[in-house]
């Protein structure tokens, strides 16, 4: 059993069977203790969550935007689960980065499109959903959580790393094309 003492992980978004599945994340966290996972979600894959201990996993419905901001700021780690095919960018990763918190990204496809962004973000841990590496991934997650628990990203550095994602850059691109 790996210990992630006092770490609060938070996930926001839909969980849908065969599209965005929470199972690997929950199996991964089952090898750990002393954490809390808050999920703000609905969807067809939510029923899978009920198999896991309520002492660690807290399931919530949707909340207001102001409540969401508070929850994101309170979390130690923000969780993103890629859609199974890995073809769609999870837009929430950019919101997560703006909060400046560490991001745990669970992905399934080797060519997951989110990796190109998250590998540039110094507080991201990207774990491929692979049951053959579950114990190894659990150990890696526990060590990473201890390292990043109270860290935040520098927003100015983030703006430079992701300049092409900024509203100013996108507005310039649109202006140049028309």
Q: State the share of residues found in helices, binned by percent.
A: 25-40%
The gyration radius over C-alpha positions equals 16 Å
What would you call the quaternary organization? single chain
What is the succession of H and E elements?
Answer: EHEEHEHEHEHHH
For the largest sheet, list the strands in their spatial order: 3-2-1-4-5-6
Task: Write up what this structure looks like.
By secondary structure, this protein is an alpha/beta fold. It has helices at 23-30, 65-74, 92-99, 115-118, 134-148, 155-161, 167-177, and strands spanning 2-12, 32-40, 57-60, 77-81, 103-107, 124-128. Helices cover 35% and strands 22% of the residues. The termini are far apart. The chain is built from seven helices and six strands. β4, α3 (92-99) and β5 (103-107) form a beta-alpha-beta unit. Strands 3-2-1-4-5-6 form a six-stranded parallel sheet, sandwiched between helices. 30% of the residues are buried. The model has no long low-confidence stretch (mean pLDDT 87).
Overview features:
178 residues, alpha/beta, 7 helices, globular
What is the gist of this entry?
The protein has 178 residues and is of the alpha/beta class. It is built from 7 helices and 6 strands; from the N terminus they run E-H-E-E-H-E-H-E-H-E-H-H-H.
Topology diagram in text:
Elements: E1 2-12, H1 23-30, E2 32-40, E3 57-60, H2 65-74, E4 77-81, H3 92-99, E5 103-107, H4 115-118, E6 124-128, H5 134-148, H6 155-161, H7 167-177
Parallel strand pairs: 1-2, 1-4, 2-3, 4-5, 5-6
